[in-house]
Design a protein that fits this description.
The chain is built from 13 helices and 36 strands. The protein is α+β, with helices and mostly antiparallel strands.
Length: 667
C-alpha cells in the first residue's frame, strides 16, 4: 500500500499462520528487502515469537507480546487462525484468518489513503460457532517499527490544568506503557506514542494514535534484537468481552504514521490526516462568558459583555454554565436542560435576537452526560444513573453520570440537544464532560456501549444540524483523541489559559493534533505553574496560534485594551485560514505556519534568556523555513531574499515580548 511518500508492505507466508510486516517507511526503504525480518537461527522459542507479526494471537505467539487473547467455552486461551483469503481494492486491504476448531474468523483491516502518509488499522472478530468466545485482550493493531538500537519513545502526559506535557524515554530493551482506565481519554496521558531509533532520535519517526474516547492502552515493546512493537487498543473489561455465537466485535481504529522529517514531520502527517475530518465551517472568533460571570448568568449582564465583545471584533457569543434551571452552583441543575426564566426573563430566544442586533451569533454550553443528584431528572429517572448494582453511585465534583450505555438514555440526550438546537438559533455548541466514568455499571461492555452511543449522538448532530460548530471539552483536555477529532470541529486543550502555561500546553498539543482543532482563549488568568507577567499582545499571539477566542471579563477592560484586542482580532481574521490549514514548523522561539502563498510566524519571548540588556548580547534573529531562495519576501515593513530569511532570519523587536509576522512573496 502506497501513501503520499511512504509505503506499508505486508505479506502472508506460504504456511498462512500469520501476516508479517515487510517494510514501513519511505518508498526507497519499502521497495527494497525487508528491514524487519529476523536473521540467524531461532533457538528456544517458536518462530512466531521473533517474526514481525502484524497481529499476534495467543496460540500462534506465546512469549512475545500478543494483540489477541481469546478463550472458548472450555476455558482454553489458545487460538490458531490460518489465512483463508485476502482482498485489496483502492486504498483498502482485508486479510481473513480462520480457526476451524474455535470457529473464529479474524479479519485484519487496513486503509492507506493515497494522498496521506498514515495507515489505518483495525480488526474484526467473528464468532461462527455455537459457543461464546471471550476476548481477554483485544488490541486494534501491533505496529512493528524498524529500530535497530532500541527506541526513543515520545509521549504526552499531564493532569488537569497541565495537559499535553512533552516527555521522552529511551528504551534499550523492555516495555513502556501509557493508558487511561477512567472511562474517558483522560488528562494523564494522550493516546499517542512516537518512536525513533535510539541512536537517531531526530531521524525517521513513526507514531501511533488510537481513535477511542473511553479506556485505552498504548505500549512500546523493544525486543532483544532492538526492534520495537507499538500496541494500541481498548482496555479489556476485567471479566473479558463476550462475543456470542453469530455476532462480531470490531475494534477501534489505530492510526500509524511515518515521517523522515522527525517528530515535527510526524506531527504534520497526523495534522493532514485530521484535516480530512474538517467540514470547512468558518472558524469564527468566540467570546465565552464563563470567567466573567461563572454561575451568575443574567441576560442584561451577558448583553453588556456582548456589546464589548463586538468592539473587540468577536463573531460568536457563548453562554457557558449557569443558563438552565436550578444551576446556582455546581451542586445542582445538571440534567434539567430548560432555560432559567430568572436568568433570561424575556426568554433565550429574545436574548439571541438581541445578540443578532449587535452582530453576534450565539453559542451554548452543555454537559449532557452528567446529572446532579437533586435534579428533577434524577428524581424522575433514578434508573438512568450509572451505578454498580447494590452500591451507591460514585459522586465526583458534586455530580453523577447518566448511564450512556442505555439506549433510552442516549435517545433522551439526543432529543434534548436536538430540541435546543431546533428551538433556538444556536451556531456553536460547547459539549463538556467534567468527571471520569469509574462505576462498573450493569453492562458487560460498558465502555464500548457508552462510547458507541456518544459517537452516535455526535454523528446525529452533524447530520441534523450541519451548521452548528461543536466544541469538545472535558474539564479541559480530558477527551482529546482521534475519535473526537472526527466528530467535533474544535477541541479545548486545557482550562489553563495563562499565557506561559498555555504556550507549553499548545506546543504539546500540536505535536499530535492539528491547529484547526486547537481552541484557545485570551483571558486575564495567572499561571498555575509560571505566573510571570506577559503583555496582552503575548496572550493574543498565543491564542491566535489556534482557534482564537476571548474569555476575559471584558467589563474590566479599558477602551485601550478593547482597541488593542480589535487590532489583534482583525489580524487573526486575515491569517486564520493559514493557521488552521498551514503546515506547522516549530521554530527556536516560536512557530511558522506555511500556507500555499504565505506564511504566518509567531514569536514568543518566554523570559528564559537574556532579554533585558543587562549583559552583552547580539540582535536576535530567528531563521525561517520553507521559503524559495529565488524570491524576495515582505515581512512587515522589510523586504528580504528568501535565502536571507532561511539563513539569518527575522529580527526580534527591541521591546515586544511577542510578534505575529506575515511573510509574503513580493515577486
Amino acid at each position: 500500500m502506497r501513501g503520499a511518500a511512504t509505503s506499508y508492505v505486508v505479506e502472508v507466508p506460504e504456511h498462512g499462520r500469520w501476516a508479517s510486516l515487510v517494510a514501513w517507511g519511505p518508498y526507497a526503504v519499502a521497495d527494497g528487502p525487508s528491514t524487519v525480518a529476523p536473521t540467524g537461527t531461532v533457538h528456544f522459542l517458536p518462530e512466531a515469537d521473533v517474526e514481525p507479526l502484524e497481529y499476534a494471537v495467543r496460540g500462534v505467539r506465546y512469549a512475545a507480546p500478543t494483540e489477541l487473547v481469546v478463550s472458548g467455552p472450555d476455558g482454553n486461551d489458545e487460538c490458531r487462525p490460518v489465512f483463508v483469503s485476502g482482498a485489496q481494492e483502492d486504498d483498502d486491504l482485508e486479510l481473513t484468518f480462520v480457526d476451524e476448531l474455535r470457529r473464529l474468523r479474524l479479519v485484519l483491516h487496513y486503509r492507506l489513503p493515497a494522498e496521506l502518509d498514515v495507515v489505518e488499522r483495525w480488526v474484526s472478530v467473528h464468532n461462527d460457532g455455537a459457543g461464546d468466545l471471550t476476548l481477554h485482550h483485544h488490541d486494534s493493531a501491533g505496529f512493528v517499527v524498524p529500530t535497530a538500537s532500541g527506541a526513543h519513545v515520545r509521549y504526552l502526559w499531564g493532569e488537569w490544568n497541565s495537559e499535553f506535557q512533552q516527555a521522552a524515554v529511551t528504551l534499550p530493551r523492555g516495555r513502556f506503557t501509557i493508558d487511561s482506565r477512567q472511562g474517558i481519554t483522560g488528562h494523564s496521558y494522550s493516546p499517542f506514542l512516537s518512536v525513533a531509533d535510539a541512536d537517531d532520535p531526530a531521524g525517521t519517526t513513526w507514531g501511533v494514535q488510537l481513535a477511542w474516547s473511553g479506556s485505552w492502552q498504548l505500549s512500546a515493546d523493544v525486543d532483544t534484537t532492538g526492534q520495537t512493537r507499538i500496541q494500541a487498543g481498548r482496555v479489556a473489561p476485567s471479566l473479558g468481552l463476550v462475543v456470542a455465537p453469530g455476532s462480531s466485535w470490531v475494534s477501534p481504529v489505530a492510526v500509524g504514521a511515518c515521517s523522515t522529517e522527525g517528530p515535527d514531520g510526524l506531527a504534520r502527517a497526523f495534522h493532514a490526516y485530521q484535516r480530512t475530518f474538517a467540514r470547512g465551517l468558518p472558524q469564527k472568533v468566540v467570546y465565552n462568558s464563563w470567567f466573567a460571570t461563572e454561575f451568575d448568568v443574567r441576560a442584561d449582564h451577558q448583553l453588556e459583555l456582548a456589546r464589548r465583545a463586538v468592539r473587540a471584533g468577536v463573531e460568536t457569543f457563548v453562554v457557558d454554565d449557569g443558563w438552565f434551571t436550578g444551576r446556582v452552583d455546581d451542586t445542582a441543575g445538571l440534567g434539567d436542560w430548560d432555560v432559567d426564566p430568572v436568568a433570561f426573563p424575556q426568554g433565550l430566544g429574545a436574548f439571541i435576537e438581541d445578540l443578532k442586533e449587535v452582530g453576534l451569533g450565539f453559542g451554548l454550553w452543555v454537559e449532557p452526560e452528567s446529572v446532579s443528584p437533586g435534579s428533577e431528572l434524577a428524581a424522575k429517572h433514578p434508573e438512568w444513573i450509572l451505578r454498580t448494582e447494590g452500591r451507591e453511585p460514585l459522586l465526583i465534583r458534586n455530580q453523577l453520570l447518566l448511564d450512556l450505555g442505555r439506549d433510552d438514555v442516549a435517545e433522551w440526550i439526543w432529543e434534548t440537544l436536538d430540541r435546543l438546537l431546533t428551538s433556538y438559533e444556536i451556531s456553536y455548541l460547547k459539549w463538556d464532560a467534567n468527571r471520569p466514568r469509574l462505576d462498573s455499571g450493569v453492562h458487560a461492555d460498558l465502555d464500548g456501549r457508552v462510547v458507541a452511543n456518544l459517537y452516535r449522538i455526535l454523528d446525529q448532530i452533524r447530520s441534523a444540524h450541519p451548521q452548528v460548530v461543536v466544541e469538545g471539552c472535558a474539564g479541559g483536555g480530558g477527551r482529546v483523541d482521534l475519535g473526537m477529532a472526527a466528530r467535533v470541529d474544535t477541541l479545548w486543550p486545557s482550562d489553563n489559559t495563562a499565557p506561559l502555561d498555555r504556550l507549553k500546553i499548545q506546543r504539546g498539543f500540536l505535536s499530535g493534533y492539528s491547529p484547526h482543532l486547537m481552541s484557545s482563549w485570551v483571558t486575564d488568568a495567572e499561571g498555575t505553574h509560571d505566573g510571570r507577567e506577559r503583555s496582552l499582545a503575548f496572550r493574543f499571539h498565543v491564542a491566535m496560534a489556534g482557534g482564537l477566542g476571548i474569555g476575559a471579563d471584558l467589563s474590566r477592560w479599558s477602551d485601550d485594551q478593547l482597541a488593542a484586542a480589535a487590532r489583534h482580532v482583525a489580524q487573526y481574521k486575515d491569517i486564520r485560514e493559514v493557521v488552521a490549514n498551514g503546515l506547522v514548523y516549530p521554530l527556536a522561539e516560536g512557530v511558522q505556519y506555511v500556507g500555499a502563498d504565505r506564511s504566518v510566524v509567531f514569536l514568543w519571548d518566554t523570559g528564559d534568556g537574556n532579554v533585558r540588556g543587562t549583559l552583552p548580547t547580539r540582535p536576535r534573529r530567528i531563521p525561517l523555513v520553507q521559503l524559495d531562495t529565488a524570491k524576495n519576501y515582505r515581512v512587515g515593513d522589510e523586504v528580504h531574499p528568501g535565502s536571507y530569511l532561511l539563513q539569518v532570519g527575522v529580527r526580534w523587536g527591541d521591546t515586544a515580548d511577542s510578534q505575529c509576522l506575515v511573510v509574503e512573496p513580493v515577486d
